[in-house]
Specification:
With 499 residues, the protein is mainly α. Helices cover 73% and strands 0% of the residues. The longest helix is centred in the N-terminal third of the chain and has 20 residues. It is elongated and about 100 Å long. The protein starts with 12 loop residues before the first helix and ends with a helix. The N terminus is likely disordered.
Length: 499
């Protein structure tokens, strides 16, 4: 089943699919969020608006009368002030298209304003129009080749568009002028993180802090990379530094939850994650992470509740269904487990472990057609003797010996005739033979690979179960279940076979 406790041998939730790890980068990427670029616009417009709004408009006594009574001949505000007001309104409303469209009718007196040109370039980046972002930023650089803001925007747009040559070229120029430049060092840190070069990434974040010691993006980057370097004390100290200045910082609160969970302080982890959700609103990754913390505290109903809530936020993403399936599976609620395993398959067809888990439960529930379908799909993604044998025995469970023998023939064809695998497949395919049984028993006694031996013991037990010899089958299943640290899915089927 899907484990929520990071103990699956081929599925490390901490480094692979932990929701918070996904939010740190694996799901959405470390790339600078567009909202950060968009916020540049709001800051710029604020600096522009203040002096323009402060312009005095002389109004005569007569004009004041008409102004007060609302006549149409009120004195007009200067066009540049109106433009900035309208632009500010569009930005505050979050309308990229509206803000960009205003620039087509920008007053002539603002046409050479470099701050507004930089703003337009940043809006194009937020829109994802990187070509126009670069063209617009270059209008500023054509007049002032040392303009760092314009160079930073060219760097961001080049990176986002995949032009690594231009990206590296511009970064080199920026760092030559400003070695501790926040924008470039943070982007480079993110690049290093994507390549799992966490020490280099942390060094880049620390460069930013030399110039801007309270830069929250850099501080959070140091905390994050420290976590991946297993320097949990430094990660926690850095997060605490962020929260000391900004106690409502949602990202830092969530990460503190993660850090407490790493030390098995799950009650404290829940406390921080609940605050992150309180201040930041519902968030898919945070809800899943909170569900994990509840699960570790044996608060399974609360874990299911928040995980279901996460699924409603992103119904097309597989991870929430995987967690629900795992929890229901552990509770032996196979109906709900199967429902969620099928949702995993629907939302992430490439995740073949879901086919395996679903096949196991469908087999257990006696849904052999579905079991055949699931194990076939699993085998298509990752060909396996086990999957092929489960397909064959599912046909035998259906008393469809013709198709079972076809599958068994395919299994045997590439195998060494002296191998244990070949002899067991042949044992299923042919009429019972005492000599064949004795040969298999001898080969089993000589098998040193515990996982292989466990699998083969299971299939021998299943052979006897299918042929109505349940007591003999249980003897073989008992040998399987007595094994320590099993690493094969058949172990679970053997456990059920003992009941």
């Amino acid at each position: 089943m899907f484990s929520l406790d990071n103990n699956r041998s081929n599925f490390n939730y901490k480094k692979e699919l932990s929701p918070l790890a996904l939010s740190l980068g694996f799901k959405k990427g470390f790339m600078m969020k567009k909202s950060r670029v968009f916020s540049i616009g709001l800051l710029l417009i604020a600096t522009l608006a203040t002096p323009l709004m402060a312009q005095e408009v002389e109004i005569s006594v007569e004009d004041q009368f008409f102004y007060d009574v609302g006549q149409e001949n009120q004195p007009q505000m200067p066009s540049d002030v109106v433009f900035v007001q309208n632009l500010q309104n569009q930005l505050e409303a979050g309308s990229l298209e509206g803000a960009i469209e205003l620039f087509s009718s920008m007053p002539q007196e603002l046409a050479d304003n470099d701050d507004l040109t930089v703003l337009l370039a940043s809006l194009y980046i937020s829109k994802g129009d990187y070509s126009n972002a670069i063209k617009t930023a270059n209008l500023v650089l054509d007049k002032d080749s040392s303009n760092l803001e314009a160079m930073e925007l060219v760097s961001m747009a080049s990176r986002a568009s995949g032009d690594r040559v231009k990206y590296n070229e511009v970064n080199k120029m920026i760092l030559a002028k400003d070695p501790y430049n926040a924008s470039v060092n943070i982007m480079q840190a993110e690049d290093y993180s994507l390549s799992k070069k966490y020490k280099l990434s942390r060094d880049s974040y620390k460069k930013v802090l030399k110039k801007e010691p309270e830069n929250e993006d850099a501080l959070y980057g140091v905390a994050m990379t420290s976590y991946y370097l297993d320097d949990l004390d430094n990660a926690k100290e850095t997060c605490e530094q962020i929260l000391a200045k900004d106690p409502d910082n949602v990202q830092a609160l969530a990460f503190m939850g993660k850090l407490y969970a790493e030390n098995n302080s799950n009650a404290k982890a829940c406390e921080y994650m609940e605050k992150a959700l309180e201040y930041g609103g519902d968030n898919y990754d945070y809800l899943l992470e909170l569900g994990l913390y509840y699960k570790k505290r044996n608060l399974v109903s609360k874990s299911i509740e928040v995980t279901k809530k996460a699924v409603t936020l992103e119904p097309d993403y597989f991870l929430g269904y995987a967690y629900l399936a795992g929890m229901y599976d552990e509770m032996d609620d196979f109906k709900n487990a199967l429902e969620n395993y099928h949702k995993v398959i629907e939302t992430n067809p490439a995740y073949y472990f879901a086919y395996e888990e679903t096949g196991i439960l469908e087999f257990h529930e006696g849904n052999y057609d579905q079991a055949i379908r699931m194990f076939t799909l699993a085998n298509n993604y990752s060909p396996s003797y086990s999957y092929q044998m489960m397909i064959a025995v599912s046909y035998l469970k259906k008393k469809d010996t013709i198709n079972a023998k076809k599958i068994l023939a395919q299994i045997m064809k590439p195998l060494d005739r002296e191998s244990l695998e070949y002899n067991i497949a042949r044992f299923f395919s042919e009429s019972y033979s005492k000599n064949a049984e004795a040969s298999i028993t001898q080969k089993l006694s000589k098998e040193d690979n515990s996982n292989k031996k466990g699998k083969m013991l299971f299939y021998m037990g299943l052979y006897y179960e299918i042929n109505g010899l349940k007591d003999v089958a249980k003897e073989f299943y008992a040998k399987v279940t007595s094994m320590q640290a099993p690493m094969f899915f058949e172990y679970r089927l053997a456990e059920w076979g003992m009941k």
